[in-house]
Amino acid sequence: MDPPRPEAAVVAELEAATLTLEKPVEAPEPDTIETDAAPEALVEKPAPKTGRTKKKAAPRQEPDAAPAEPEEVAPADADVASEAPETAEAPTRPTPRGKRRPVRVTAPESPAAAPATPEVALSVEGLSKYFGGAAAVDAIDLEVAPGAFFGIVGPNGAGKTTTLSMITGLLRPDAGIVRVFGLDVWQNAQLAKRMIGVLPDRLRLFDRLTGAEFLYHAGALRGLDRATIAQRSADLSAAFGLEHSLHRLVSDYSAGMTKKIAIAAAMIHAPRLLVLDEPFESVDPVSAAIVIDVLKRFTAAGGTVILSSHSMELTERVCDGVAIIAEGAVLAAGPLAEVLEGRSLEERFVELAGGEAAVEDMEWLQNFSD
């Protein structure tokens, strides 16, 4: 058994232990943790919040040189790799918080020139359509300039209606391309058809509507608002002389009035190209004169009209360009003076369509049966 220790020694050991416990233990600051990363990179990451109200800032090394000045604007044709080495290395160095890294600014490229407005209102290339192996339209080529009043003439069954139906997107062609002001009618149908107003052949109207209701229906289908439809309906009905008949059912209209209300419906959305198939069929001379006057005002304002007609005299009088079609092929097309070659349209049409030879072969008509 150990001998009892002196009281003085015990007291000395207790005092030493007390001093050791009272000495504060310094915990390492979270920002001073050693790492291989550069000091600047540590500053980029915010220190975790520990709830302290006072925190010692992380040590940071002084940069070797003064901060680089912002880079000068490089010319558009300058080569980035040709700059000085110190300028090229600056963006790769860590950037302290609160300072923005210099950004290289190059001159903007010149905007591409806007596409010019097409100089052709209608372009038809190799347009063909077959029914039962027979060619109704056989590789037709046409070109119509903006602002033209263009007529298409030909005998019955020549392919005029089929051609116009393919031009307006009502009938899909078997071959060929149709462009309206540069837009392919079948590849960009929605945009192309916005620029087209159509009067199809043998059009069946919603004739149980009044004239006003019919025009409103046509405008609403084109996306026009109510106020615009009302204004344009009033203008068109006044131009065509229908202002006193808008309250009547379309089924009660005469043939001429029906044609006029149908053309008004085709024009209500202000198209750039108006395609009319036989607009003067069964129309009296007074109504025809009114329609022609409206169409001439339309072309004078920059619109383009393409129509088919059996009336050679009327077509020659109002059109500045014409195409003669027979058996699905274009026999002649171009400005009116070039196609006529000093003759009337009827004479030129009969010559190209072969009507004279057909009449000459009918000599038996000169011998009467009695």
Short description:
The protein has 370 residues and is an alpha/beta fold. The chain is built from 13 helices and ten strands. It has a six-stranded mixed sheet with strand order 6-7-8-3-9-10, sandwiched between helices. Strands 2-1-4-5 form a four-stranded antiparallel sheet.
Task: Tell me what you see in this structure.
There is one protein chain. This protein has 13 helices and ten strands. The chain has a domain at 122-152 and 169-361: Rossmann fold (3-Layer(aba) Sandwich), CATH 3.40.50.300. The longest helix has 16 residues, at 7-22. The radius of gyration is 44 Å and the shape is elongated. By secondary structure, the chain is an alpha/beta fold. β9 (321-326) and β10 (329-335) form a beta hairpin. The protein has a six-stranded mixed sheet, sandwiched between helices. A four-stranded antiparallel sheet has the order 2-1-4-5. α6 crosses α7 and α6 runs parallel beside α8. Keywords: Antibiotic resistance, ATP-binding, Nucleotide-binding, Transport. Residues 122-352 form the ABC transporter domain. It is found in: Cell membrane. InterPro entries: AAA+_ATPase, ABC_transporter-like_ATP-bd, ABC_transporter_ATP-binding, P-loop_NTPase. Residues 17-118 are annotated as: Disordered.
